[in-house]
Amino acid sequence: MTFPDRIEYDVTANRPLRVAIIGAGPAGTYAADILSKTDLHVSIDIIERLPAPFGLVRYGVAPDHPRIKQIIVALANVLGRGDIRLLANVNIGTDLTLDDLREHYDAVIFATGSFKDADLDIPGIDLEGSYGAADFVSWYDGHPDVPRTWPLEAKEVAVLGVGNVALDVARILAKHVPDLMPTEIPANVQAGLESSPCTDVHVFGRRGPAQVKFSPLELRELGQVPGVDVIVYPEDYDFDEASMEAAETNKQTKQVVKTLTDWTLREPKGYDHRIHLHLLQEPHEILGEDGKVAGIRMERTALQGDGSVKGTGEFLDYPVQAVYRAVGYWGTEIDGVPFDDRRGVIRNEGGRVLDESGQQVPGFYTTGWIKRGPVGLIGHTKSDAQETIANLVADADALFAESRAGAEQLSPDNVLRLLRAREVPVVLWDDWEVLDAHERSLGDAQGRERVKVVPREEMTDIALKRA
């Protein structure tokens, strides 16, 4: 197909509002879906850095949680409708600059998520064998940007944090590999886990059982892993007034506390793999030997009546050869987009991006974790998107007016033409369906739903039918 060099819209005509959404994960896809159902006449492109869509659901949810991964079905229904265009394998900053986005779109919504590990400033954090949980999750989920091997050499492991990511890391490390084989784990992950000598995973939380952030369902599932004992220690178990109130008034807290209480009363079954849940212990120092992790020193904490804790001065040492910090995610800064370094998010109010002086940056919006921080479940991003889209719709007249004031409005074809002129191997929705079918065929050959393709170049070649 041949195109003229450039197609220009008459900006005075009744044209669609051109919107780019950066990130094809749940946040970006929900935003596109909500925007497409407003009264605005819109033309929407979702621009994704990786050759595959779905973001956190594909690369952040543990492979043995197919129930959560079913969210992909809903996301695929949105992206496959035909009214929203996917431009995957396109990197903002190199393949397309912010100036390019301003030229080709009236509005840009940043939905890039939070994928980096939050820092933990304790002695020994930089020792060999100390890792961020986000990097490990990316490895076992087959993210193309991380190495294909992981140093699984530790028999005893510490996981710092009491959220669902900490449970995922502990479960994947402790689980017997045959129990993972029905999932979509790539071959390199299978091989790595099969070579792991890990038998004991210690999960540490600095506060008590009523303050942990595990979801009730994820916690109960932990106790159902075949061949793995889950051990909770009564000496790590305490409540204060605020804890009792939380357990009585919050349904989820009550369920979590009940599960943990039941586990303090049951005897281990003597399995060869164990997950130990330690509460009221705060990391003080990672101990090293010859530059490698050799243990972790924890300080016993005490509840203060209001659910907070402080150190008691009592220290406990645990022999571990690896430490994974699962203390939160942190957003990645995009050059030229105002960023709040204290919170790890794009600076915004209600999804409208703000500059350092607090003024709205015309045409820039944000949604999802990069808007509010990495808290809440995947479904919570819908309410984020609703707020952001409501504000974008309220700004629509101003966005159109700015274009009429001199900004040149281009045909949607011009973005694709620009990318092809720069020799960017753009993966469209139809191309993704080719890669999706290939992964499913790999799974069919092994009696599994799918097997992920990991190397980025291979993903692109398959999607673009070059393999």
What does this structure look like?
The strands form five sheets. This protein has a seven-stranded mixed β-sheet, sandwiched between helices. A six-stranded parallel β-sheet has the order 6-14-7-8-10-9. The chain has a three-stranded antiparallel β-sheet with strand order 11-12-13, with no helix packed on it. Helix 1 (26-36) packs across helix 13 (381-394). It has helices spanning 26-36, 55-59, 66-69, 71-79, 98-104, 133-140, 164-174, 187-194, 216-222, 241-249, 251-265, 369-372, 381-394, 396-404, 412-421, 429-445, 456-463; strands at 17-22, 42-48, 84-88, 107-110, 114-117, 130-132, 156-160, 200-204, 228-232, 273-278, 281-289, 292-303, 309-318, 322-325, 329-331, 339-340, 345-346, 348-349, 352-354, 360-366. Strand 16 and strand 17 form a beta hairpin. By secondary structure, the protein is α/β, with parallel strands linked by helices.
